Amino acid sequence: MSGQAELGVMAATVEAIDDCWNRIGVHGDKSCPLLAEHIHCRNCQVYAAAATRLLDRYALAQDAHAQTHVQAPVSVGRSLLLFRLGEEWLALATRCLVEVAPLQPVHSLPHQRSRVLQGVANVRGALVPCLSLGDLLGLEPGSPVAVSARVMPRMLILGASGGAVVLPVDEVDGIHALDPGQPASDTATDARFTEAVLQWRGRSVRVLDEEQLLSAVNRSLS
Q1: Mean pLDDT score of the chain
Q2: Burial of 77 (0-12, 13-18, 19+ CB in 10 A)
Q3: Which residue segments constitute the domains of the chain, with CATH numbers given?
Q4: Is residue 131 within 8 Å of residue 220, measured between CB atoms?
Q5: d(CA 142, CA 23)
Q6: Which of 29, 102, 161, 163 falls 20 to 30 Å from 211 in CA-CA distance?
């Protein structure tokens, strides 16, 4: 799905869900009578119910998407977004991306115990599910990485079958046209999510298998 089409899905979601937090809540004129009790919209049951309905949409949309999604062949000079998660550098095909955005606050959902689903983030007025990519890939927490003060965490907004999802990452290097690298070993513990491994500027970069990644994203939202 293209970036413009994906943003259209997000806009349609906003139209279907009454985003009162943008009209009379903390992002609107603050005239909602419930603010006196809840202080912030994220503490309100209306906000939580809207987030729950959003997640239900993803599950309903997955079957239709599975019939039309076809994996494109890997080619030399492939367009990849390179980013860092903890100590590890990863790459993902740009065709999966809607955009890269500044990091936004993530609001947890009541009674949500999934390690992967962290909550929802407000992306231009739309509630978008936020997932932990590290937990999704099964990465072990590493030691803190010393980085420049100019390095800022970012959110990757991906186009999943039911709409956009947010994946926070620690650093984004940019988009590069790179050789796909060496195929991943089938015996590797992370081979299910790794399509290839390439060497780039002295770093070993895992190229994520977009089909497997999006499938795992969809499962975590169903």
Answers
A1: 75
A2: exposed
A3: 1-222 (2.40.50.180)
A4: yes
A5: 42
A6: 102
